Amino acid sequence: MLQVQDEKLIRTTREKDMILEKFRNRGMRITKQRRLILDIVFEQDCTSCKEIYYQASKRDKNIGIATVYRMVNALTELGVFQTNVPYRLTGRSAQNPINGCRVILKNQALLYTFRSADEGGHRMVEKETYYQLNERAAGSGLVDLIDVEAFMDEDSTAAHMRKLQELGVHTIASNHDFAATPVPEEMLRRLTRMQALGADVAKLAVMPGCPQDVLNLLQVTLTAYETLEIPVITMSMGKQGIVSRISGPLTGSALTFATAGEASAPGQIPVENMREILDIIL
Fold it and tell me: What is the DSSP letter of 170?
């Protein structure tokens, strides 16, 4: 058994060395963070960049999610592995997927979200492009709500949300912290700031490091529900925070997210299971 494990270790080391050599041949620097990401790719059964980032941030608190996406893109370009992006919004065909969703959903509300890589999405995007995508979706007349990253450029957020509201949609100001759970005072400050910026709904997602982080998020949610004038949506991500996704009736979180396929955030519950849980709770 020991011999088999030794052989696997040797093989893994060789594969890593081959990949690093390809990086060098392309003139890419072999940084400590790139080595860390490569180690996680080999060691963990991660299904998304967010999961890789979550594992990496446990070992290096300074690593950014954008670094993970760049590394994954580099590995894909080298042919090390393939990734499948579940959605794309490009050119003149951009309205077709939204229109199709509207037909399927019929009388249900449709939330449009373009998540930037800085907050857990698949793409790096300039602020101007991000705003244009949101405004195009709002102007299509096919969506009901648009998620706006509140702190992408806080000075511009209020004006951008007003424009979207003038186009006839409601706005959800959001903030996603994949590295940690801020202290309760900071979490409440962010939700309160979203209201001040003019959002119709305030959303906060955080990553717990311990059970107390989850409890803190639940308490902040209840406080925000009791003190703010707009609805709030909160969640503690990952397996440890699953309870926050089903406790909205207790804490006042107005909405939860479930997955119908690939999860868009760690800890999301499949929609069929979520329906069963909510049928019991509500």
Answer: E
176 labelled catalytic: yes
CA distances from 154 to 102, 234, 269, 272 (A): 31, 20, 31, 37
Signed CA dihedral, 182, 183, 184, 185: sign only? negative
Catalytic residue (choose from 50, 122, 160, 203): 203
Give per-residue pLDDT as tens, 186-218.
999 999 999 999 999 999 999 999 999 999 999
Contacts for 164 with CB less than 8 Å, ≥ 6 apart: 134, 135, 138, 146, 148, 171
Catalytic entry in 16, 122, 176, 239: 176
Q: Rg of the Cα trace of the chain?
A: 21
Antiparallel, parallel or unpaired: β 258-259 and 269-270: parallel
Sheet holding 111-112, edge to edge: 111-112, 145-149, 170-177, 201-206, 232-236
Give pLDDT tens digits for 89-143: 333 344 444 555 555 555 678 899 999 888 888 778 899 999 999 999 999 888 8
| Contacts (Cβ under 8 Å, ≥6 apart) of 271 | 258, 259, 260
Q: Are 255 and 226 in contact (CB under 8 A)?
A: no
Q: Residue written as tokens 């370009």?
A: 77
Give the Cβ contact number of residue 157 at 10 Å.
22
Which letter does DSSP use for residue 265 in this model?
S
Q: What is the 3-state secondary structure (H, E, C) of 194-211?
A: HHHCCCCEEEEEECCCCH
Tokens 């709500």 label which residue?
Answer: 145
> Quick one: which of 161, 136, 150 has its CA closest to 192?
150
